[in-house]
Amino acid sequence: NPSEISGFRAKDDAPANMLVPKEKRKVKAAFVSLVRNSDLHGIRKTIREVEDRFNRKFGYPYIFLNDVPFTDEFKQGVRDLVSTNATFGLVEGEAWGYPEYVDKNKAKEIREKSNYINGGSESYRFMCRFQSGYFYKHPLLKDLEYYWRIEPDVHYYCDVDYDPFLFMKENNKVYGWNMAPTEYMATVPTLWDSVDKFMKKYPQHIEPKNFINFITKDHKSYNGCHFWTNFEIANLDFYRSQKYEDFFKFLDKEGGFFYERWGDAPVHTIATALFLRKNQVHYFGDIGYYHPAMGFCPKNSNRSGKCVCDPEKENEMHYECRRRWDTI
Ligand code: GDP
Ligand code: MN
Fold first, then answer.
1. In a 10 Å sphere around its CB, with 0-12 CB exposed, 13-18 middle and 19+ buried, how is residue 49 labelled?
2. Is residue 207 annotated as a catalytic residue, yes or no?
3. With a 6 A CB cut-off, is 152 part of the ligand 1 pocket?
């Protein structure tokens, strides 16, 4: 066994299945993922990386949510990999589907002529609405203070050798992100009009030192900038707040989750820009990341030895909204 021969063993070598006792975790936090049974292999790859890069040292649990019951195969496939415990929850009732005031026929007609990505999908819209206004209400998340969203088939390029939950807690950070692309405007043509109405109706909810200039140039239109929510570390009290609830309820009434294809990423991002100060939001520029279609590689990471990506090729500064972040 090479690990028993001195010189082969890495200093911080820990067995992959090392159990970090619950009382050692510094923050009431968990990984949370909404997934389908068919995502098993994709989410297993993600878990493997999350464990190797971070969690085998920190020991946070996992929560998986699904609109249909998880199969035994899924549960076992996940449990075989996690170093801690995984719980599995069902998404039910109003959290998944149409609110009663949405016209389903109109929604269907709109889907049939939507030619943007996922435009024809009903379940994608249920997913976006759930991720916008319901995930944090799930009973399995009740005791959590922070959460870290993970998705199938992503890559964590770098070692994370500190606890991002603890970092956020100690530094009063509410929201953490690592990539900020530009939204397909065809999916959100009237979102800004609705946000504008919301701001007029609830001026008391708007943070005086907000960073609305991240998401609009002229306050008359949305520039499409959004934090990519497939990675998101957040204090759940933000979502549980009255402000956020009023915001989600208002947008839901507008119908854009169904008559357009509003994503949870622009919805979360606009909420942070309206309700938070910039210094409550943290850019995790050290958590190199890839989600199918694009990724970024931390600057100088080719010399750190802790990342497996090329910072020239996947330069964070290629992204317009990432650059904008530094200017606001
Ligand atoms: P994209 O990231 O916008 O391309 O969307 P994805 O297809 O990756 O979906 C986002 C997340 O929601 C992923 O974790 C999916 O597994 C999950 N998801 C998407 N649609 C459904 C669905 O209908 N049911 C369930 N349970 N999960 C879904
Ligand atoms: Mn995805």
1. middle
2. no
3. yes
